Amino acid sequence: MKNERDKIELLLEHNADEQLKKVDWDELNSAISTKLDEAQKDKASVRKHPIVFKIAAGIAATAAVILVTLVIYSKVLPSESQSILKQIETGALNTGQLGSRVDETDGLLASTDPKMILLTGELHLISNDPLLAPHSVWDQEPVLKLTSNNDKEKI
Amino acid sequence: MGGSQRKATSDTVQLVRASQAGDRSAFDELVRIYQRRTMQVAIRVLGDANEAAEAVQAGFVKAYLNISKLNEAKKFEFWLLRIVTNVAISHARKIKRREEKIETIDFFEDKKKLTPLESQSAEELKEIIKGAMLKLSKKEAKAISLFGLEGLSHKEVAEIMGCSVGTVRWRVFRSRQKLKVLLRDYLE
Predict the structure, then answer these.
(1) What's the alpha-carbon Rg for chain B, to the nearest Å?
(2) How far apart are CA B64 and CA A33, in angstroms?
(3) How far apart are the first and last CA of chain A?
(4) Angle made by CA atoms B5, B7, B9, in degrees to the nearest 5
(5) With contact defined as beta carbons under 8 Å apart, do B143 and B45 qualify?
């Protein structure tokens, strides 16, 4: 364990030593100096034109506030709409104009049950085309013609 | 020109105070004193002198721009090492992202045949260390890089990292465990 630890340290140190040999210290010093000059110039220009930078900072801050507001709204609104839907479901919220009602008094029209349709008054089921209503009660044979008394007795 | 390892603190304190007062030449002197030490730590993080030089330059600029915020002048070295280590680690993350985009072959798979340590050229070793360090977490990379740095006690490393000595030891242990696996072929 200790041996492996030492080897890792040795490896890291060996690499650091090898890499340090390649460093041109004068060049590095000069590069740092140049970067510091640039930083100093930037710092000085901020001090020289404080109003310009204050305005720029103000604009940036306003833009940031707008952006944050938009982000918040875009995240808040979907959750609000979900809570409204929940309230509608539980009846906690009166939907008012959003609601609708179908008033139907005619049993024939209102029913979707084929038995009900057959038992309510005269109805001529003349379609025997299986393509029109396949797999349904309408597709039954024989074609029903509820027009005579004899036919009614058959039923 | 490389700069002394750990110059007398009183000199440093005076130079730091002069720098805080706006004396650029004083800061240039601090650069000369600490450039070698900062390069050592940056190389330990990044494994490569060229990448380390970029991190060191950026680190010194950051230190220069913020030196007025340093309250205790005598702690300049720790403060500077913390800045340079953080910059180096950010730089390492950028390299990692850049290389992940390009990389199609796993580095370690590709280099497995190159063993042992004695047979490695400096360039190969650099690539091996660089690849391994990139696989550590930020905190682990920071801990192992500072831990082995000459002249820094465990307590001082903990101070630089802003955590307890125990935490530093744990992170160093974890990073060694990872490096042991990553570099197993080169440790034989």
Answers:
(1) 18
(2) 11
(3) 96
(4) 135
(5) no
Q: Hey, which bits of B80-137 come out as E strands?
A: none
Question: What does the pLDDT read at residue B15?
Answer: 95
Q: Is A124 helix (H, G, I), strand (E, B) or coil?
A: strand
Q: What is the dihedral of CA B18, B23, B25, B29, to 10 degrees?
A: 30
d(Cα B33, Cα B12) in Å, to the nearest integer? Answer: 9
Q: How far apart are CA B96 and CA A129, in angstroms?
A: 71
Is B117 in contact with A28 (Cβ distance < 8 A)?
no
Closest chain A residue to B41 measured between Cα atoms?
Answer: A16
pTM, whole model, 2 decimals?
Answer: 0.62
pLDDT of residue B65: 95
Bond before A142 cis per omega within 30 degrees: yes
C-alpha to C-alpha distances, A114 to A67, A106, A119, nearest whole angstrom: 60, 15, 9
**Selected residue of A9, A32, A40, A41 to mutate for chain B interface (largest B Cβ count, 10 A):** A32
Tokens of B155: 């307590």
The larger pLDDT score, comparing residue B122 to residue A97, is at B122
The verdict on ipTM greater than 0.85 is no
CA-CA distance, B104 to B106, in Å (whole number)? Answer: 7
If phi over 0 gives left and psi between -120 and 50 gives alpha, with beta otherwise, what is residue B116? Answer: beta
Which residue is associated with the tokens 């831990």?
B147
If one compares A136 and B63, the residue with the highest pLDDT of the two is B63
CB of B22 within 8 Å of a chain A CB? The answer is no
CA atoms of B122 and A140, how far apart (whole Å): 90
B174 close contact with A: CB closer than 8 A:
no
Q: Which letter, b or e, does each residue of A53-88 get, where b requires 16 or more Cβ atoms within 10 Å of its Cβ?
A: eeeeeeeeeeeeeeeeeeeeeeeeeeeeeeeeeeee
Tokens of B39: 């390069």
Q: Say what the alpha-carbon torsion angle B71, A36, B144, B147 is, to the nearest 10 degrees.
A: -50
pLDDT in tens, B162-179: 999 999 999 999 999 999
